[in-house]
Amino acid sequence: MHHFAYKGGELHAEKVSLERIAEAVGTPFYCYSTATLERHVKVLTQAFKGLDPLICYAVKANSNQAVLTTLVRLGAGMDVVSEGEIRRALAAGCAPAKIVFAGVGKTRGEISFALRNGVNHFNVESEQELDFISEISTHLGARAKIALRINPDVDSKTHKKISTGKGEVKFGIPYKDAMRLYAKADRLNGIDVVGVHMHIGSQLTQLAPLEKAFTLMRQLVVRLRAEGHDITHVDLGGGLGVPYDGSTDVPPHPDDYADVVRKCFGGLDLKIMLEPGRLIVANAGILVTRVINVKKGDARTFVIVDAAMNDLIRPTLYEAFHDIWPVTEKLKNAGIFADVVGPVCETGDYLALGRKMPAVATDELLAIMSAGAYGAVQAGTYNTRQLVPEVMVRGDQFAVVRPRQTYAELIGLDRLAPWLAPTRPEPVKAAAPAPAIARKPEAATASAGVSPAAKRTPTRRS
Length: 462
Ligand code: LLP
Fold this sequence. Notes:
Shape: globular
Bound molecules: ligand LLP
Largest sheet: 9 strands, mixed
Number of strands: 21
Low-confidence stretches: 438-462
CATH superfamily of the largest domain: Alanine racemase
């Protein structure tokens, strides 16, 4: 459930009209609802009542500082996968003791940064990474708490690109190697073995694969404890899917997910850790875009909008379905069959294909629903398009929590190589022969940016 609804025929985020935000901010823009974020944390917490899990929100799903700060204030910890995400979590006020550091390729610099900042523990992805962590923590005179991420070789039945629990993918340590590596970890300097970690994929719509993997983790915990390892927690990753309205796969309710966790880990006196990302933010965000024009092709109708694949890549990358609502209420699903496409020069630039939707015209606003997770964070600037602004709503207030990138910021990041220094214009040749003037050597331009003209270009507005 979310807090985007029609009031008086206009789509609102909580109590704020999206038309009003569009006037103030321009389009396209992402819009997040605080009440929806709060609701999702509450629903998950209630589902796990009695288990008192530590919910470490997966920062990668949406790392806007306003989103992180909202979640930290609701008591969430953070699951991070890079130094950048550690910095974001700390900047949002997350206690280091509530930060877990995952990621399949942690650099030595990142490991050192995490240790110096006192993160709770590392979810370790390989034997070599274990060695790195031991070396670095010994060098720093620290102790690194670790869990091994175990790959249970379970098919999570989700999209191939976001399935992470099969034996053939890059993630985790094979189940068959787990006992040996835990024994090794125990012998290594600077390491304290504390837990077991798994994450088998994202947008999971079936509980059976999770139950299968949880059962293997339970067996592992029992065996590890029998060998004398002090396993205090199990980190179950994230992955629970959300309803993208209109899609055929209906995900399980968090209550049912929690029941499976209870069934699999009951009686073990384990701290349960969860890393939900999508579940918390997906339906708390939308992408608002304006229709540029409606183009009737020979075979299809194209609704060309000002948001594109660089702003929301999920439809083209994962064949993801996002519902599309007109901001001014119309009969849903009536009218036309159309592809909703962006202005980017790729046939793969679409937000919806063959969608039954209301007839729309130039300048109308559309809301791409359920875009709060893996939307803005996966945006890019392809075709030299500015990163889209992000707006957060709370009740009747809204705030721009990330302004639209300016062209000066976007183009001005580039530097000319010294040999590309702008040349002085050739002097106009005088009619009569003039005495020869020695040309000054060209100035070094290591710091040369773009021309002032580029910096003056206004921001993209509809
Ligand atoms: N923990 C780990 C170790 C993960 O790799 C992930 C997501 C999560 C937790 C959070 O999973 P969630 O609860 O959000 O499903 N960009 C893709 C999704 C990539 C997920 C990557 N890992 C998409 O747009 O569907």
